[in-house]
Structure formats: C-alpha cells, structure tokens
Amino acid sequence: DIVLSLKLKSLIFDLIHSIEVAQGCKADPQAGPNRDPNCWEWQRQLRYRLEDDRSCAVLMCDAAFKYTNEYQGNSPLLVHTPLIDKCYLTLTQGMKYGFGGNPYGPAGTGKTESVKALGQAFGRQVLVFNCDEGIDFQAMGRIFVGLVKCGGWGCFDEFNRLKEDQLSAISQQIQLIQVAIKERHSSVKLFGKPTAVDFNAGIFVTLNPAGKGYGGRSELPDNLKQLFRAISMAKPDNNLIAEVELFAEGFK
Q: CB of 80 within 8 A of CB of 13?
C-alpha cells in the first residue's frame, strides 16, 4: 500500500528528528537539570502551541504565527538536516519582521522544497511559479493579488531570470504587500484598486547563481534584495539524508 508506506516513512522521519531534538536539549548546558524550555536548543525548533481559543500557533524562536489548516495531502516529508533547520529559522525570523525569504544556491540543493515543506508545517497553501523572461510586472501583479486575497504563499523559482527592467516595478508591488501585512492594513492598493489583505500571505523567491553555468540570470537590484532575508543553500548533507531515507525504508 503506497499511502500507508508514505505515512510510515513520514512518522519515522518525525521520530528520528524528535530523538535528535531530545538528545540536543539533554546535552545543552543552558537547559540545566530542570530542562529549561527557554534554552536555545529548544527555542530554535519549529513547534506548536494550542491557544486558549483552541486555535493552533506555530512557534520558532521568538516568532509566532497562526496555523491555517490547509489540507496538504499525504505528501512526503523532507529529512531534517542542520541546513533545513537553519533555513527554517532564517525564513521565520524574516517573516516576523515583515520580510520575505530568499534561499539561494546551485540547483538541486532543496531551496524550493524547503519553502514548500515550511508552508506545509504552517498549514499554508504554497504555490510555486517558475519565472522566465516572458513574465512582466503585470502578470506578477495578478499573481500577487491572488496570493494576498487567499493568504497563500508564493514561491517564485529562479526569480533572477526576470528581465531587469521589470524588477523595479515588481519590487514596488512586493514592498506594498509586505508593509500592509506587517502593519496589519485591511487592504492594499494594487493596480489602482483596493485588495483585501490576508495576513497569512507570504512571498518567497529562490535564486540560482548569476554567471557561468546559469545563463539568463542577473543580479537583483539592492532595493529588491532588501525585501527578503537571504539564506545560502550551498551544499546539502547527502550522507545524512541517505542514511535516514534508507533507515525509513527498513535498512539497518
């Protein structure tokens, strides 16, 4: 049964990660003999809390977000590695202060998958868009309107493939949305029309290196870089990923 197999693998992945977290907290001298929950090893983990109104909150470090119960299906989980934890921490801290997230690095390092996995942990709908030279600021604006209205996350893959003359207009749209979410405005004006704002919306971009081996990529302008918190995804821990994957499949 493929569905049951996926469930079991996901549970094993979670169990392995929970064991690593427990061992890390036990070894953290800051926790002390009373297992202080304010120790860094525990605070840097993605965790959940049931609020008084029976809603669920997602916590990481000093950032707190609303869990939105978007049905994600029985999708495979990512193997937790130190790089994934660092990526989650950077993205959540960026969102706390009203910014987007920008994982960057070579192809195949898990940039897009990390954003999708974090969205799944938040109960968010994550929509991935592959950018190219044919997309202009009007097309991007229509996508932004939809994301802001529905409260979903948009992950714009290979964002630096967009034309340079379009990036300035796109950065203005992103900045308006981020300010509206950060300052809790009920609406934002896009294309001259007021658009209702769902504060759970988020905008993320991934970048491949501009230069040799990646044709058609350009450096982002500074005013656009300032809207995102960057995290380098240079080299995944392939040995750890393979070890956990094989263990979940029944190998010893």
A: yes
User: Is the distance from CB of 47 to CB of 60 less than 8 angstroms?
Assistant: yes
Q: What is the dihedral of CA 8, 11, 13, 17, to 10 degrees?
A: -160
- HSE-up (13 A, CA, CB side) for residue 7: 5
Q: Rounded to whole angstroms, how far apart are CA atoms 132 and 157?
A: 9
Q: Judge contact between 109 and 236, C-beta under 8 A.
A: yes
One digit per residue, the tens of pLDDT, for the chain of length 252 reads 888 888 899 999 999 999 999 888 888 887 777 778 888 889 999 999 999 999 999 999 999 999 999 988 888 888 999 999 999 999 999 999 999 999 998 888 889 999 999 999 999 999 999 988 888 889 999 999 999 999 999 999 988 888 888 888 889 999 999 999 999 999 999 888 899 999 999 999 998 876 656 666 777 888 888 999 999 998 888 899 999 999 888 887
Pairing of strands 202-205, 126-130: unpaired
Max distance between CA atoms of the chain, in angstroms, equals: 61
Are 52 and 108 spatial neighbours (Cβ–Cβ below 8 Å)?
A: no
Q: Residue 149, Cβ neighbours under 10 Å: how many?
A: 13
Distance between CA atoms of 56 and 229, rounded to whole angstroms? 26
